[in-house]
Design goal:
The protein is mainly α and about 400 residues long. The chain is about 75% helix and about 0% strand.
């Protein structure tokens, strides 16, 4: 038994010695093959594949020789493609842009390893100066590749390209260029990354480059809209409200911000805030039917019936083809009547009640005329009106409608 255990331990010892040796031999062979491909002036893609395969082994990820050969193999493919484009030969545009991105990623990976201290703790950066200059010239291809995929509506690819373009600003490889300060395309790239994230319904991607995207003044309204939607997806009410308020402040007539901001405040029972927004909007455009109708509805919900009627009359003076405006006035008069009817001495105000029902009638009948397919909205109000005005024929008709539902 003891001899058997010794044999097993000895075999394990041999494996521990032989396996790394074999792996090292295979690595050297593949490196040599990659160099042969590169020197031959062809099969650069095969050289890249060999080095990429080696990098899948975690033991090789800090090997500068492998990283450098991969960088060169991609660079040579890129230059071949660039030459074909220059000579107007047939070449796949997507392949060219993908090579541009892979080249930049390979350069950044090599630089990160190149900047690590050696065993003595000394840092000796060998490639940065040359590669930084090379890749800075190629970097615009990331932006144009992103726009290429935006046009193709491949938003996942577009996002990757714009992200790569933007992240260069954080890479030590490019620190001398200070892209955040000197690159005028940064804000545009951030906007398109935000747009791509929005098109993918991905809140995190939509928000990631928020600050830079908001600096693109030409697309400021769109950016606020996409951010508002992203925060809505995340159920972040405070950020959602912030985007809507900012959007409304700068673009009060934009059809996106005002209705959603008013709706937000009403849903959260902040009716005074909703009314404030409506008043600010009307101050900008006093005849805007959307603004006036919003205020009319807010006042109706606040039981400020006389004010509601006045605002809605102003709305109808601007545009008399809005069914809901007639409904609001009709309901306002009916609610005023209901308020009186609920008083202990309601019988003393019979004339006032009659007057209110008479005032409500034409508005409700007009609403019915304009919305015949919506008896659920007008049948009950008209039932009350006809009952209190003692209009038997009309009452019977509406009563039948209610009973048939």
């Amino acid at each position: 038994m003891k001899d058997r255990i010794c044999k097993i331990l000895f075999c394990c010892f041999l494996i521990a010695i032989i396996a790394p040796t074999q792996r090292l031999k295979a690595q050297k062979k593949e490196i040599a093959q990659a160099r042969t491909y590169i020197k031959s002036g062809k099969d650069y893609d095969k050289a890249e594949q060999l080095m990429t395969k080696l990098l899948k082994d975690s033991a090789n990820r800090l090997n500068k020789q492998i990283l450098y050969l991969r960088y060169v193999a991609i660079k040579m493919q890129y230059e071949q493609g660039n030459e074909k484009l220059y000579l107007k030969e047939k070449y796949d545009t997507a392949t060219f842009y993908q090579l541009s991105k892979r080249l930049l990623e390979a350069g950044e990976m090599l630089d990160s390893v190149d900047a690590l201290p050696n065993k003595k703790g000394k840092v000796n950066i060998s490639y940065r100066q040359r590669h930084s200059a090379e890749l800075n010239l190629h970097r615009p291809n990331l932006f144009y590749g992103g726009t290429y995929y935006i046009i193709k509506k491949d938003y996942a690819q577009a996002y990757e390209f714009f992200q790569a373009y933007l992240e260069c600003a954080r890479q030590p490889l490019f620190q001398q260029y200070d892209y955040a300060k000197n690159d005028s395309l940064m804000t545009q790239a951030a906007y398109w990354a935000t747009y791509a994230g929005y098109c993918m319904d991905d809140a995190d991607k939509t928000i990631r480059y928020r600050d830079d995207a908001l600096r693109d003044s030409a697309k400021y309204a769109y950016t606020l809209r996409y951010l508002a939607e992203a925060y809505s997806w995340q159920k972040d009410d405070e950020k959602y409200r912030e985007m809507l308020e900012t959007g409304f402040k700068h673009f009060p007539t934009n059809p996106y911000f005002f209705p959603r901001l008013v709706d937000f405040y009403q849903q959260h029972q902040l009716t005074e805030e909703a009314l404030r927004v409506a008043d600010e909007a009307i101050a900008v455009d006093p005849k805007n039917i959307i603004f006036l109708f919003a205020k009319s509805t807010i006042l109706l919900n606040q039981e400020r019936y006389d004010e509601c009627i006045a605002v809605t009359e102003a709305l109808l003076h601007c545009n008399d083809s809005i069914p809901e405006a007639y409904y609001n006035i009709g309901i306002a008069y009916l609610n005023k009547a209901l308020t009186i009817e609920q008083q202990p001495n309601a019988h003393k105000y019979k004339k006032n009640l009659l007057h209110l029902y008479q005032k409500a009638r034409p508005y409700m009948e007009k609403y019915r005329e304009m919305m015949p397919e919506s008896p659920k909205s007008w049948a009950s109000p008209l039932y009350r009106i006809y009952l209190n005005l003692n209009m038997g024929k009309q009452f019977d008709e509406v009563d039948k409608i209610l009973k048939s539902r």
